[in-house]
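Reopening this one. Same input as before:
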Amino acid sequence: MVTTTDAPAAARWPRRVRFLRVPAIGLSLRVDIVSVAITGALLVVTAVVGVWSLGASTTRAPGLGFMQVIEVLAGRVSGAPANHVATWLPVVVTAILGGASLALSGAIFQTITRNPLGSPDIIGFTTGANTGALVAMLVLGLGSGGATIGALLGCLLTALVVYFLGMRGGTADFRFIIVGIGVSAMLLSFNGYLIATSDVQNAGVAAAWGMGNLRDLTMADTVPVFVTLAVLVPALIVVAPRMRMFELGTDSAASKGVDTARTQVILLVVGVGFAAATTAVVGPIAFVALVAPQVAARITPSAGIPLVTSAAVGATLLVSSEAVARTILAPQTMLPVGVVTTSLGGVYLLFLLLAQSRKARP
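Same output, byte for byte:
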């Protein structure tokens, strides 16, 4: 007599997961409905804060109402209200695009290092950008245009140094992050030397830029960030499936046929590009790249760090921080946005340390 046992039921995706297929191009997308809803809510919050920020006043005169800003954007109002909106529109657009760009950079490095501290501001890339800008402004005297180019080159050169010193054995250990922290510390010391040995006026400008400054921007300043997103987002979409393999470790990714060395280099270039474009325009903005991916991972049910939600969190975080920095002490002064993001980042780091200490307890 032969007995049979029922085969185990095949694993099923949760009900919140749907698949969108496009047979014409052979594309299949996995969509988490809950994550999409959360991302949509974040985009709504970003839009609302952005519109409010466009109408906010930094003088004793009253600002524009929410509906007034909408009418200006729709082209139905001109004159002084339109001029007010036009003044702050580049700032708000750059904050939204820059926040999304920094968040994507942080999501990439936190995924391949499998460490919540793996972000461009912690491992020294944005510090290197600050060094390049300071050299251009204070040593070479190239002005703001030269500072942008110097920041871009400084970020890229710092990434190369950290890569060659820290990528031995892959990025999944602490070597990459420790090397980055060490390089960042040395660059911070050099930055302090450059500022201390320059004249007072140049030192003040350089110090303000080094804290992240979104003021006095034009629409032309938004172009580098927009172009970076337009070029690098498709590249990230292509390499994202291989990046996901790193969530279980480099060895696991290699066992699934991923060329880990080549993929890490591609992800390094893409991640540095996201960080460098924003930093070159507005200066180093701390903690957005660190906090946004972790917040996105905690508010969505998806496994790993969700890229789209991370970008939405980054946009919301930076546009909100910019609005607070610009208005909280107005009209006496307008703070650099880095002051607000650093304060939020300090709270986040304290929370992270407390959470890690609870996990370490027996």
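So the earlier flakiness isn't reproducible anymore. For the record, The mean pLDDT is 84.
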